[in-house]
Design a protein that fits this description.
alpha/beta; Rossmann fold; two-stranded antiparallel sheet
C-alpha cells in the first residue's frame, strides 16, 4: 500500500490514507513514538519511501520525518501560530498540514498548486500572479527540484514576500553539489540521474547560494539545533528530516 500510494497524486491519496490508517491503528498501538504534528503516540512509525525507510511515517496523520521536524520548528522558533493575522502562501500543501494550518491561520491562509485541484488557486511559481510584497509567510517544500527554472521561482518568492516577512523553502539535499542537465528529459533517465522520474536536478549544500542569489538572507537549522538525541528518537527525527532553510529579505 505504501509503495502504491507514493505513486499517486496527493489529492487521490487522502481517502486511501484514511482507510489504511484506521486499519493500522491497532497494529501500531503503543507509546514508543510521538508525532508532534498530530500530537499522538504509536508503537512505532510506518515504513515509507521509494527506498523504504524504517520508522518513517506517522500512522495517524502520515507526517514524515521532515514534516515532524518542520512542525516542531514552526511551533517553537517562529511566530506562525501566535494568533496574529498573517497572509500565508502554502505551495503544494501537504495533507498532514493543510487542515491544521487552515484551522490555525484562518481566512488569510492560501494554498496553491499547479496541478492539485484541491488547492485554492492554480499557480505556476515561476510566474506568481500576485503583487509585490503580498505575503507575510511563504512555505514551499520539496517542489523546486521539480521546476526547470528554479531560480526564477526563487525570485518570484522573494518578490511576493513582504519586507519583514519570512519564507521556508525546503528541498532534498542529495548531492555534494547541485547538478542539473536539461538534456535529461525522459522519466526513466531522470530516475537514473536525479533519483526520481519527475525531478530535474539534485541539490547540494550550495542550494543556499541560489537562495541568496534570488535576494534572500538564509539561516539553516538542523535537528541537533532543536532537540536532544532521545527526544529526536522518540519523534523519529533522523537524517531524513533534512535541514530547514529560513529565508528573509
Amino acid at each position: 500500500m505504501t509503495t502504491a500510494l507514493a505513486a499517486l497524486p496527493e489529492w487521490v491519496k487522502s481517502p486511501l490514507r484514511r482507510i489504511r490508517n484506521t486499519a493500522c491503528a491497532a497494529f501500531f498501538y503503543g507509546t514508543g513514538r510521538f508525532c508532534p504534528v498530530c500530537g499522538k503516540s504509536s508503537r512505532r512509525f510506518r515504513r515509507y519511501g521509494r527506498v523504504l525507510r524504517e520508522d518513517a511515517q506517522c500512522v495517524r496523520c502520515d507526517a514524515l520525518e521532515r514534516h515532524r521536524f518542520l512542525w516542531l520548528f514552526l511551533s517553537q522558533k517562529t511566530d506562525l501560530f501566535d494568533g496574529k493575522s498573517k497572509t500565508v502562501l502554502h505551495v503544494a500543501p501537504e495533507p498532514c498540514f493543510e487542515a491544521r494550518f487552515k484551522d490555525r491561520l484562518g481566512a488569510r491562509y492560501l494554498t496553491a498548486d499547479l496541478f492539485n485541484p484541491r488547492a485554492m488557486v492554480k499557480m505556476d511559481i515561476t510566474d506568481i500572479h500576485y503583487p509585490d510584497e503580498s505575503f507575510d509567510v511563504v512555505y514551499c517544500s520539496h517542489v523546486l527540484e521539480h521546476v526547470l527554472d528554479d531560480r526564477q521561482a526563487m525570485r518570484e518568492f522573494a518578490r511576493v514576500l513582504k519586507t519583514d516577512g519570512w519564507a521556508i523553502l525546503l528541498v532534498p539535499i542529495t548531492s555534494d553539489t547541485t547538478f542539473e542537465d536539461s538534456s535529461v528529459v525522459e522519466p526513466q533517465d531522470r530516475l537514473r540521474v536525479f533519483g526520481q522520474e519527475d525531478h530535474v536536478r539534485k541539490y547540494g549544500p550550495d542550494y543556499v547560494d541560489r537562495l541568496r542569489d534570488a535576494g534572500f538572507r538564509v539561516a539553516t537549522t538542523n535537528v541537533e539545533d532543536m532537540v536532544q538525541t532521545e527526544e529526536a528518537k522518540s519523534m523519529g527525527l533522523t537524517s531524513a528530516s533534512g535541514e530547514i532553510f529560513v529565508c528573509t529579505k
